[in-house]
């Protein structure tokens, strides 16, 4: 095994904030009786499809550290993003709010003024809060983290992230609970880390939603190598916590983020775009080596952390009202799911995406979705247009068009409605929307989606066309 590790893993990278007056009182937010406040570490991948790590079924990508983390904690099998691109994903997680409601719904975006975020909540509960690696949120003033270094994007040159700074931060937090977010740049393109010869393109098994071309296999091998590199960074984090001597009082969470950047994954509302692998270890609290099927979404993560830190997320004013006049979170704590006390949290999860404002995106190609445990319903608001993004102009997509133009075209032109049986059809290949046998199911899901959009203050096409106004680069200069 040691020789395999040497083959596969290379290059392991070994503000005082004054809180503004909160709109809610944290004075009565007490630690739970008899409990010490836990430290919390959130490790977030970048563009990683959940099926491509061992804890969620991969038998071809080498991820021993994630496998170890799963064996010591719980795998949450039905965690979902609310939007399949980086910046909105992070900001929905850190606000506990849906992307349209918080304002950060296109990519490279920002939340509305006055909305509070996870570091603000945890600091009010006595925590130090820091981030290392990728930030990709705005405005930075709304996220009062102590920044430990790193960069948004990785060109493969130099050191991407220095995790020794994370260890130093942990050492200096000895007398105070801490939250630390390590936001990796891997395995986001360009795939330039890890041993690029570790995986043989000819031996890779492709999922049925892919078009099998030589370039697909070559790119997939590079992507797999970077996943193994990411796994090595997870191992560094686990070792740091072990050396800290406070492992028993440290919650470690790992999230895969949205799917990879191949077609029908990132930038889409299919399961490979929104379904997220999520692993949590909490010694003495979470039963090791367990799984939980409860449906969850990223808006539930901040309320859960507040709960673990001794606060009451149900009493919090987030700083913005929803379409029904409520000021609380869109999510709720899933601590009972973590502890194995329940396997149910939600009946439905929701998603949205706009191409307006993304790199090389369509002028507007809005999508909205709702998913139950059995079915996924998608409404394409601009279905008469053409879906565009950076993938469309790539050599990879050209190879898809040459090999299987029907499948490739389905990525760019989609019907108004899509409906998938996610149990029988996990890769969302067979659209049932026009089948009269599923009329009742489609109607029910469409109704749930309409109610969600109302709650989010989402006006559909009008919200799509306003997307550019949510990007800092389009704001007027002082």
Summarize the structure.
Helices cover 27% and strands 14% of the residues. It has 478 residues and is of the alpha/beta class. The strands form two sheets. Strands 4-3-5-1-6-7-2-8 form an eight-stranded mixed beta sheet.
Descriptive overview:
The protein has 478 residues and is of the alpha/beta class. The chain contains 14 helices and twelve strands. It has helices at 2-8, 64-71, 86-95, 99-102, 118-124, 164-172, 214-244, 271-274, 301-308, 335-338, 395-403, 405-412, 439-455, 461-465; strands at residues 39-44, 74-80, 128-133, 146-147, 178-183, 250-255, 275-281, 290-297, 349-353, 367-371, 375-380, 417-421. Strands 4-3-5-1-6-7-2-8 form an eight-stranded mixed sheet. The chain has a four-stranded antiparallel sheet with strand order 9-10-11-12, with helices on one face. A hairpin with a 3-residue loop joins β10 and β11 (375-380). The longest helix has 31 residues, at 214-244. Mean pLDDT is 92; it is low at 1-34.
List keywords for this structure.
disordered N terminus; eight-stranded mixed sheet; four-stranded antiparallel sheet; alpha/beta; 12 strands; 14 helices; 478 residues
Topology:
Layout: H1 2-8, E1 39-44, H2 64-71, E2 74-80, H3 86-95, H4 99-102, H5 118-124, E3 128-133, E4 146-147, H6 164-172, E5 178-183, H7 214-244, E6 250-255, H8 271-274, E7 275-281, E8 290-297, H9 301-308, H10 335-338, E9 349-353, E10 367-371, E11 375-380, H11 395-403, H12 405-412, E12 417-421, H13 439-455, H14 461-465
Parallel strand pairs: 1-5, 1-6, 2-8, 3-4, 3-5
Antiparallel strand pairs: 2-7, 6-7, 9-10, 10-11, 11-12
Helix pairs in contact: 2-7, 6-7, 7-11, 11-12
